[in-house]
Amino acid sequence: AHVSTLKQLKQDKYPDLAWESSSDLTSKELLERVADGKLDYTLGDSVTIALLQRIHPQLAVAFDVTDEEPVTWYLKRDGDDSLYAAML
């Protein structure tokens, strides 16, 4: 999803935009590397960043690349509210 966003930005606004992508690492792993100082920056979605900021408060959003898009979470109804609590 992030690569398609970057391709669209390159086509529409920033013809000199260049990036490297990794199929070996997840968004979470890339953000953790930024938090650990192993990467200078990465592109991530707001939901993943917000969740990881609880563990790595030093993570900060520099700027938004796209407008916000609505996100809907569907959860199984059962007695365990831990996932719901983690998303708040």
Chain-averaged pLDDT: 86
Tally the structural domains: 1
Number of helices: 4
How far from one another are the termini?
A: 24 Å
Beta content comes to under 5%
Structural class: mainly alpha
- DSSP E strands, number: 0
Q: Which stretches of 5+ consecutive residues score pLDDT under 50?
A: none
**Radius of gyration computed on alpha carbons:** 15 Å
Taking the sheet with the most strands, its summary is:
none
The quaternary organization reads as single chain
CA-based shape: globular
Sequence of secondary-structure elements: HHHH
- As a percent range, the share of helical residues equals 40-55%
Please tell me about this protein's structure.
This protein has 88 residues and is mostly helical. It has one domain (25-87). Helix content is 41%, strand content 0%. The protein contains four helices and no strands. It is globular, with a radius of gyration of 15 Å. It starts with a helix and ends with a helix. This is Lytic transglycosylase F. It comes from Serratia marcescens.
Quick summary of this structure?
With 88 residues, this protein is mainly α.
Based on the model shown, name its key terms.
88 residues, mainly alpha, 4 helices, globular, Lytic transglycosylase F
